[in-house]
Amino acid sequence: xxxxxxxxxxxxxxxxxxxxxxxxxxxxxxxxxxxxxxxxxxxxxxxxxxxxxxxxxxxxxxxxxxxxxxxxxxxxxxxxxxxxxxxxxxxxxxxxxxxxxxxxxxxxxxxxxxxxxxxxxxxxxxxxxxxxxxxxxxxxxxxxxxxxxxxxxxxxxxxxxxxxxxxxxxxxxxxxxxxxxxxxxxxxxxxxxxxxxxxxxxxxxxxxxxxxxxxxxxxxxxxxxxxxxxxxxxxxxxxxxxxxxxxxxxxxxxxxxxxxxxxxxxxxxxxxxxxxxxxxxxxxxxxxxxxxxxxxxxxxxxxxxxxx
Amino acid sequence: xxxxxxxxxxxxxxxxxxxxxxxxxxxxxxxxxxxxxxxxxxxxxxxxxxxxxxxxxxxxxxxxxxxxxxxxxxxxxxxxxxxxxxxxxxxxxxxxxxxxxxxxxxxxxxxxxxxxxxxxxxxxxxxxxxxxxxxxxxxxxxxxxxxxxxxxxxxxxxxxxxxxxxxxxxxxxxxxxxxxxxxxxxxxxxxxxxxxxxxxxxxxxxxxxxxxxxxxxxxxxxxxxxxxxxxxxxxxxxxxxxxxxxxxxxxxxxxxxxxxxxxxxxxxxxxxxxxxxxxxxxxxxxxxxxxxxxxxxxxxxxxxxxxxxxxxxxxxxxxxx
Lengths: 308, 321
Hints:
Chain A is mainly α. Chain A has twelve helices and no strands. Chain B has helices at about 1-50, 55-60, 75-105, 110-125, 125-140, 145-170, 175-185, 190-215, 220-225, 270-280, 285-320. Chain B starts with a helix and ends with a helix. Chain B: One of its GO terms (biological process) is phosphate ion transmembrane transport.
């Protein structure tokens, strides 16, 4: 082979080589970008567990789970997460009592009854409902809803879990209704037609055929809605008060896990102090609660997608 | 006789069922309207309370101890700068991740793990991102309680939304387009960059705008990383020092390159935090300020969402495969 021929061959080969290498590098960069999701999860768990570990070196896990008071900012310190969990559960419970019936009915109406033009009009409006910043919802709860409730219940304190829960329910409605509607619309038309052919009305079809067929998707919507409510911060921090209290009465004020984290963050706590570590222990509790709900919701949602 | 009796009974039955049907349809519509009307009412009340405060001075004053002199200058400047960092970080990263998952990823356990993580991250409460940023960005990477920390935190928060919308947009691009590009000898990346991505760009932009509008309203994570509530200065600008940075001083191109990135490390506040601060004061005068700030905040998110809805409408109508 002469020198020219060799040169010619390498000149032919090199563009392909360059091209292949470039393609590989691009794929690697894209992979790294996608892997950042995994890195974020790992980082969240690392930070939470690391700081909580330091916290649990000082406070025993049994105290954390069984003590009935949460007063890390006072002289007499108690670390019973249960009084924050109770606030979280009560506000979320109120919110779900509003959002589940209303969200389900709205979804059923949109999926089975509404003419398609009306649906195209209503859906963006509901999306806007979800787009309003939560701090604005908090303002509504504290300054509009609480005074209104006080007219009916004169003893209601200025901060209470009821109004925070009600407004939070309003906020979650679009979330629940959009997932439930997706689930209902993915029920095959054949099932509906079968039901109509037997002489059922739209209502009967919706309740007895579509609802049961979409039940896994709908329960996924409920569970993901619950997870939203548990993690919601600003509404409860503004309207439900910042006083940790072990109570199941929505008419009282009580802090949630998220409200406590906000309260501590607004102060000026030294890094490495036990007070600073409490927010990570509280955060870890919150993550574990939402994680369980999210995993349940994920598998339920996956099931309905697999069926249809 | 027997048959006509039965017929009557059947007719009343049918009537009853149709009545129930009609009633339920009414209830459904009413439920949705009630939710929308309550919200509209609350928003109007907010608007009415806040409107008297909305003047030019409100936008160009710093917060103050005196409620009638307080404004949102540092808040909206802070929000804009934080959003700039968020967009610059989340958009390329999210789109790249979306492209990988949709176009490159093989069906194996690595892809599964990434996918599970994206879904999971979308469900993590926003305040947890604040804790992550406090532990990681503020204390580990020493980025400080600054605009860059807030921007990166919110970028992580909206990353799952950007990834999911990118994937959906790319999935909607028909395969024939890819095959045509391959048939002409294009490489995978050329196909994606020159053909698939431009086709999906409209939907991707819609998703990005929706994600950013969510980031604008996020309060909790920004509080957690230690944004201040009382800021009476603006970050150092690479342009003229004094607000509104005009007229430009010095020589072309009027940019002080030494200070080009100085604002990244500056202390800051954002709109929702300013509003939260005013809401939590007992003085009702400050609550009027909160209403005004809330009005501005709602206007921002509504404009962004309106833009997104319009864009979606535009692209859905324009593209017919």
